[in-house]
Amino acid sequence: MVCWNGFAEARPRTYALYDMHLTLHKPFVNYWNQLGLKAFEFQPAVPEKWIYTGDNRPIDVLFYGQY
After folding, report:
1. pLDDT at residue 2 greater than cutoff 80
2. Cα separation of 27 and 43, whole Å?
């Protein structure tokens, strides 16, 4: 099982029973690795098809978020 941790806190929440932790915060990855847990930084990416450099934009405003 994977634990997704997106909280920005002084100390990351740690659930040792998960197979790995994913987060946006690199210091959390280092902290979990020091505890002997698998942890990875998971940064968002923009698909190539979304990148548009022409003058006429097909999208004026794009709201993107995560929970």
Report:
1. yes
2. 13
